[in-house]
Amino acid sequence: MQQLSSLQAVRAIAAIFVVVFHINIYFLPERLYNGESAVELFNIGYAGVEFFFALSGFIMVYIHQKDIGTPEKVSRFALKRVLRIYPLYWVVLTAFILAMWFVPSIGASLDPTTLEYAHNYSLFPVHTGMMLEVAWTLQYEMLFYIAFGLLIFTKRFGLIAMGIWFSACAITLFRPIENSVFAMLLSPNNLIFLCGMLSALYFKRLQAIDSYLVVASGLAIFFAIGIADLNKTFPLNEGWRTLGFGIGASLTIMGLVAGEAFGKIKSPAWLNRIGDSSYALYLVHLPVLMVFSILVSKLGLNTLIGPLPMLIVFTIGSVIAGLVTHYLIEKPLIKLTQRLFFNSSASGQVPIVKVFHPPLHPSERP
């Protein structure tokens, strides 16, 4: 199977932009600089959530298209997805909870009940929020994996179930749902998985020159919607904006993969390394930024360094934390679970097409 290194590089860029977004919209203005951020344009970074949902849809079809309708493969698929999502998430969540006990300001006013602990560790969708804020996106990922697992188990009924699900999600574009649980289950966010799946089915039809045009079109749609939303000139509601982002992201992914197939795209190794660590970076960057902001505030460094240089320092620190977490925790966990559940002596190297999880939407930020 083709190694999708170009997507690793784009994933790294998107992950860094997500980190910059959180620094710019929350940590700088609310914790360090009394309402002042670095660059307003960085605030469109929340749209990375749509990009990574599209990427998840693409990767599931790209990897598992031949497994569809093969029920004997569904248990392995489900186990691999669970092991990919939960172990590192549990480690980071537990570390975050322990840190809250010793440094209460990290967790603000969080005082979870036993039921809320269970909700957070299981990722089961309920009305309460997530202690590790970025975990809301993992709930969408798990929901999509359940739907895709049904497609592997039975192609006919899986397609019917997906058709009904995506149709119901499309209805919410016109009639948003008030109930938070049903709003998540039928969110327009779920339609982005469909966009990504379709891009995986059609990318092989593109020619070399077409791939550049498709990438350019996808990026133009993606950033045009982002800038219009930033300037509050986007004419439609949040659901349509979300779908527009998903279409732009899926076109970009489709064009990049087609271009790589023709040997037209090559990404630098250092950027791929950051892409490899993207899930770890996603999970740890908010707690790391909270610690950074507390230290900077106590030392008074925010009175000596301006917002933009501080943003650069925070971004570099977050990337380093993600890389350290990836190599010291994530890769050993992958290696261990492969041995325990698949009798594998694999090196623990993360597949280059692994799923990355998206950033925190501004409405869900701490």
- Point out poorly predicted stretches: 345-366
Shape: globular
Approximately what portion of the residues adopt beta-strand conformation? under 5%
In percent, how helical is the residue content? 55-70%
- How many domains, as an integer? 1
User: How would you characterize the largest beta sheet?
Assistant: none
Number of strands: 0
Radius of gyration: 20 Å
Summing up helix and strand content along with how strands pair, one would put the structural category as mainly alpha
Distance between the termini: 40 Å
Average the pLDDT over all residues and give the rounded result.
87
Helix tally? 13
The arrangement of helices and strands along the chain is HHHHHHHHHHHHH
Can you describe what's shown?
This protein is mostly helical. The protein has one domain. Helix content is 69%, strand content 0%. It is built from 13 helices and no strands. Helix 3 packs parallel to helix 12 (278-299), helix 3 (74-102) crosses helix 13 and helix 8 packs parallel to helix 10 (238-261). It starts with a helix and ends in a 24-residue tail after the last helix. 40% of the residues are buried. The model is unreliable at 345-366 (pLDDT under 50).
Blueprint (SSEs and pairs):
Blueprint: H1 5-32, H2 48-64, H3 74-102, H4 114-122, H5 136-153, H6 155-171, H7 180-185, H8 189-202, H9 208-230, H10 238-261, H11 269-276, H12 278-299, H13 307-342
Helix pairs in contact: 1-11, 1-12, 1-13, 2-5, 2-8, 2-10, 3-5, 3-12, 3-13, 5-6, 8-10, 9-10, 12-13
EC number: 2.3.-.-
Keywords: Acyltransferase, Membrane, Transferase, Transmembrane, Transmembrane helix
Protein name: Acyltransferase family protein
